[in-house]
Amino acid sequence: MKRLLLAFVLVACVTTAARAEVYDGGNLIVRGALPVGQPGRFQVATSVSEYSNITSYQSLVSHGAGAQLQGVTQITGVLADDITPLGAHPGSNVTSFTFSIANFNDHAVTIRPLARFWNADAADGRPGTYYGAVGFNFAPVTVPSFTVALYTGLPAPGQFPMPGLTFWAGLAFDDNHGTTGATLAELSGVGQGGFYPPTVGTTADKLFATNDAGSFFGINNPFGGLQVFAPIGFNASMAWEFVVDDVVPVKSTTWGGLKALYR
Questions:
Q1: CA angle 65-68-69, nearest 5°?
Q2: Rounded CA separation 195/240 (Å)
Q3: Domain span holding position 55
């Protein structure tokens, strides 16, 4: 009986660990780039968006905590934005999501983006419980100097069920265990572009930045603070878009109606 119980505990531990493993996001698709500090618009076309704020670049950039060395990896903190989707397709597969990366170094930098997500259920609507096991480590990308670029990831079916309520979406950046060549200073010079207004869904005038560097995958209630942009007239919002399966609703039909169709 003891051996059976021990085996059950070991299997349970292995299963839990497997569920908590971050996804390999693979290669990102580049959607376009604009100069840092110059407001502009991206021409984008999407299918079924639950949220989209990737059209109007406000000219600003922001980043989370500066990079630190953790083990053999140099990594930044997480900067996250609040996302309120339409709520029309809760639980549907997210087929693509888009975000921005801003490089305000005076030269190109190669970094690895890490996407993280939280429910907005902490005090003041801050990031609270981590959103399922949804997290993506993408292949490294090289971002040109003084640019804000849009990148799109393509989750596999079942990896990313669309939240139906307000949630937080954030990014950290690292040097992929020392393989990209990015220095601490260069990583600290990488962030996200400020975009507003959304064309689908809504977002509040606030960001969340962790106080420390780190991946924060699976971490509930990450320690950090809310931020707003100092310049008056700018909204503290980052570029994010979430596209889902085009789910066709099933039409309600009575049994009598069905019989009439097949007479």
A1: 160
A2: 9
A3: 22-245
Residue 10 in any domain: the answer is no
Assigned domain for 4 exists: no
Query: Could you give the C-alpha distances from 195 to 8, 124, 141, in angstroms and in order?
Result: 49, 23, 21
Q: How far is CA 85 from CA 49, 112, 242, in A?
A: 9, 27, 9
Cα of 105 vs its chain's centroid, Å:
23
Task: Report residue 216 as tokens.
Answer: 């924060």
How confident is the model over 45-74, as pLDDT tens digits?
A: 666 789 999 999 998 888 888 999 999 999
Indicate the Cα dihedral angle 106, 170, 128, 210, nearest 10°.
-10
Q: Is 146 among the domain residues?
A: yes
Q: Is the residue at 115 inside a domain? A: yes
Residues 218 and 132: their CA atoms lie apart, in Å, by 8
User: In this structure, is the dihedral angle defined by the CA atoms of residues 153, 187, 238 and 162, taken in order, positive or negative?
Assistant: positive
pLDDT attached to residue 231? 65
Phi-psi group of 124: left, alpha or beta (phi > 0 → left; psi -120 to 50 → alpha; rest → beta): left
Q: What is the pLDDT of residue 5?
A: 36
SS3 143: strand
Give, rounded to a whole angstrom, the gap between the first and last alpha carbons of the chain. 62
Instruction: Count up the domains in the chain and report the number.
Output: 1
In this model, does residue 102 exceed pLDDT 50?
Answer: yes
- Reference 71, options 172, 178, 188, 173; nearest CA is 178
Q: Which two tokens stand for residue 55?
A: 């059209």
Does position 139 have pLDDT exceeding 60, yes or no? yes
In this prediction the pTM is: 0.85
Q: Report the candidate in 239, 249, 248 with the shortest Cα–Cα distance to residue 102.
A: 239
